[in-house]
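Need tokens for this chain, all 378 residues.
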Amino acid sequence: MSIDFTIEAKHGAARASRFVLAHGVVETPIFMPVGTQGILKGIDCVSATNILQTKLILANTYHLYLRPGTDILSKASGIHSFANFNGNYLTDSGGFQAFSLGSNAKSDDTGITFQSHIDGSKHRFTPTKVIDIQYIINSDIMMVLDDLVALPASKSRILDSINRTTKWARQSIEYHNNQKNIREICNKIFAIMQGGIDYEMRKRSANELCELDFDGYAIGGLAVGESNKDMYNCLDYAVAFLPENKPRYLMGVGTPQNLLECIDRGVDMFDCVMPSRNARNACIFTQNGKINIKNAGYKIDFSPLDSECECYTCKHYSKAYLHHLFRAKELSYHSLATIHNLFFYMQLMSNARNAILHGYWDKYKNNMLRKLEGSLWH
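Here are the structure tokens for all 378 residues:
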């Protein structure tokens, strides 16, 4: 069954939509917190549900395959019961991790051979094996294996990436559709467009993948070395190559400004480690820009991290207390700071959605960009 996807409102290319997954309805634009191991760093799934109210977490096939492993996940009946999260999971295929492993991973036309970053053991991912792993994880959205290229890259390397990505995508969707004939499957499957920042390459990749009729489409191969300007210019045409009636997911992006600009170009879904990673390193996002909570000036500042924020952390604790926790290396700092930064990102998406639904998207976007881009570290 094709994905149940509805566009509720549009403002230019920006759109507010909703789609149905096995573990609940997802409303867009949406930011997916990164839970590489099936859980957000420093936050348990009960808190992710009750405090952050997230409906979709990104987990990683590569990492879950290595640890805890498919045997344990199978015995646990999948990641939802194992992690006690009743919302949805999207799992990346592991292609980006192979890209990140550098010399410890080798790609060929049939898959990727890599060494574990944990113990150096050798493993191999093929398009169908990656799907089988994600069945065991029981991902609500499964990403297919793709061939990612760092930018800048030669046209011949980009073309090789497209050809390999299309070949693997075809193998994945055909395998997935055959499984549907054997047993009931609720997992949705997304393809990943490649093509660098080349118009014709992006068009070619999109056309080949769209012929295969996936549940949704991701835009891969961006935020891997190109400038923001080049990324935005690429999205101006690349998004339009994708179906209007399917979710569009931009992988691994990015700053709050990036998200606003990309929503304006028609993107529905985002993920990035930035809010949680920055939180752990003292960088706090606020409505008026970023602050560095380790700065001495916050030692006696008893105001919340953001006076406009309604998150758990801002309701209960002050900058001075977070400053103290960070300086004292208390683990609770990581949890409280991460809750705030993720809440900030998710509230940004919620406000963007409301602005699109109620016809004031341009005003909201421009106002937020002014506030965010006019700010400095303080």
